[in-house]
Amino acid sequence: MAKILTLPDSHTAPLTIRAKALVFHDPQSRLLFDHVERLARSDATVLVTGETGTGKELIARHIHATSRRAGPFVAVNCGAFSETLIDAELFGHETGAFTGATQARAGWFEAANGGTLFLDEIGDLPMALQVKLLRVLQERQVVRLGSRRPIALDVRLVAATNIDLARAVTAQHFRADLYYRLSVAGVRLPSLHERQADILPLAEHFVGVYCGRLGIPAIALSDDAANALRAYTWPGNIRELENVIHYALIVCAGDAIQSHDLKLVPLQPAARRAGDVHDPASAGPPGFGGYRAPDERLSAAPPAPAPVPVRVRERLPAFFGDLLREGGPELFDSVERALVHAAYEHAHGNQVRAARELGVSRNMVRTLLKRHGLLGCEPPLDALVDAGQGGVAMSAV
């Protein structure tokens, strides 16, 4: 019997890019579930890594629910606050600590005392606050902004990120000592297309959920729909699967979901599974929509890709030398703007992917985009803070 984790009261939760259900049916997922259960019984700090929408918060909630902690579970998105506010939000503040602080307020660490604090998008935490977080973890006490009195804490920390923190450490965007402190115990959540056996159980779970919400009779998945779900690469992971099933149930005309009811539109062209080889020669001549008849010579032994990125990197010193000799005002800003703009376009407007390509945090990418007028000042969709007290619902499917 597979296990499924769901967010508490998920039918009232706002639209987010979080995964609202996580199934452990695939053999790889069952091993992951056993690993998480072992970690939950300890008080070790846990670092959960994985792409957006893979269920990192669900893992954090299950760790808390399975632990011996009687206190609350508090979830905070580090990318949801500006750099000027996140200090007071995390660690609290006293009256008059800053303009507008008309009364003292406890931070999220104090709110989670006796329980578990889940810090999502930990890679977005500014460097100055990384130092303070490290001190809190080492001394198990917090000092509110504007105060000198330490407050003792009994909080278990679970952190999560969708960027490679090791690369961020190398790029000097994340402190190495904090990285080692956070990664006492690690959990890597594979993307959905890496867990093929979990796709259909998750789809059937969402079919049941949305049939109930829409007030319609039970609807099945046809064989062609099931095959289409298994063949898709799911760049948006579990959240994308939930949206696809929701839409399919709205447009479905019969008693079974067909493949044409599924809105499978990857964000990136030519999305493919690991191991698939893209051959530029297969694009075909112009005017034929990029199609070319299969060629046995192409499928027999695809050529190894040429090391273009290495050659481009080797040309960088000469390129920058030419720029410096040419001169001109605001050279650094021009180069920075061009790089950020290129990364943003390459990621098809996705800040998370742009940050991953550049090896920096999403918060830094967002700051650079705003600095160069490439992004409005509206908050991101997933800039949410969840301080819910509910636990994790777990059942057999």
Brief account:
The protein has 397 residues and is α/β, with parallel strands linked by helices. 41% of the residues lie in helices and 12% in strands.
Describe what you observe in this structure.
Among the domains are: 199 residues, P-loop containing nucleotide triphosphate hydrolases (Rossmann fold); 66 residues, Helicase, Ruva Protein, domain 3. A five-stranded parallel β-sheet has the order 4-5-8-3-9. Helix 1 crosses helix 2. The protein starts with a strand and ends with a strand. The longest helix has 19 residues. The C terminus is likely disordered. The radius of gyration is 24 Å and the shape is globular. It is an alpha/beta fold and 397 residues long.
Topology:
Layout: E1 3-6, E2 21-24, H1 27-40, E3 46-49, H2 56-66, E4 73-77, H3 86-91, H4 108-111, E5 116-120, H5 127-139, E6 141-143, E7 150-152, E8 156-161, H6 165-170, H7 176-182, E9 185-188, H8 196-214, E10 220-221, H9 223-231, H10 237-251, E11 256-257, H11 296-300, H12 308-326, H13 331-346, H14 351-358, H15 362-371, E12 393-396
Parallel strand pairs: 3-8, 3-9, 4-5, 5-8, 10-11
Antiparallel strand pairs: 1-2, 1-12, 6-7
Helix pairs in contact: 1-2, 8-10, 13-14, 14-15
